[in-house]
Amino acid sequence: MSRIVVHGLEKSYGDARVLERVNVTAEAGEFLSLVGASGCGKSTFLRILLGQEQQSSGVVIVGDGPIVPEPTPQRGIVFQRYSVFPHLTAMQNLLLVEDFRSGGPFGRVFGARRRKARQEAEAMLARVGLAHARDLYPASLSGGMQQRLAIAQTLLGRPQILLLDEPFGALDPGIRVEMHDLLTELWTEHGMTVVMVTHDIGEAFKLGTRVLVFDKVRHDPQFPSAYGATITYDLKLDRKTRASSHHLAKVAAMVGATRPDSAMATTAS
């Protein structure tokens, strides 16, 4: 279920083409980091993989068949903006995961299953540093805490494919490193296929097993939106060894990053 195959994908909005000629295969358990300039279609590509949007043409296969044109529990996502339920406490937000998954016609689990769901939720809150906030509503949490809660909610669902859209941008540096470690731990435990959009080159190299650069290769000065972005660079990484400064600098130059030195610092953290 967690293998992804994309062939000849294109996405347009009216006459404006956002993506074109996108071809990529992600084997089960791979971690793809997507980088590129703002507005080059990375998040659009992620929404297509989620089923939130449909491609204009091309083929997207998830597992053994074409992608289902709607979000499913097998595909979890963490957006850049916080996506938790404001009327529920932190604990209730996490309990809702099991309610949605196994609640049946009542939309809620009871008895032993409820107790087990609560234990798992408490353990996850502790892992993301929110044990003290279990009974607080999102409005009482900082932005970074809300994002940690959103990440916890998604990871608790144990999706086979995890989609991340700038999930760590709102977090303090120390918390971000902790979340990197947690994500890596859970990715290793559950063998998820991960596709992450990030503007942090160092983060892309630190977490990913592959770094994919999205960019436009065709341009029309009279009609800038005539052509879309595609994958211009696909670098496979060995997580046991650090990426070379040459590769970091090359990718940083491709996406217009002005501080490749900061990327090196992130990979070393």
TrEMBL record:
- Domain ABC transporter spans what residues? 4-241
Xref: Pfam families: ABC_tran (PF00005)
Q: Which InterPro entries match?
A: AAA+_ATPase, ABC_transporter-like_ATP-bd, ABC_transporter-like_CS, ABC_transporter_ATP-bind, P-loop_NTPase
- Keywords carried by this UniProt record: ATP-binding, Nucleotide-binding, Transport
Top-level division of the source organism's lineage: Bacteria
Alphabetized GO MF terms: ATP binding; ATP hydrolysis activity
CDD domains on file: ABC_NrtD_SsuB_transporters (cd03293)
In terms of PROSITE patterns, this protein maps to:
ABC_TRANSPORTER_1 (PS00211), ABC_TRANSPORTER_2 (PS50893)
Q: Which family does it belong to?
A: Belongs to the ABC transporter superfamily.
Q: What is this protein called?
A: ABC transporter-like protein
Native source organism of the sequence: Mesorhizobium delmotii
Taxonomic path:
Bacteria, Pseudomonadati, Pseudomonadota, Alphaproteobacteria, Hyphomicrobiales
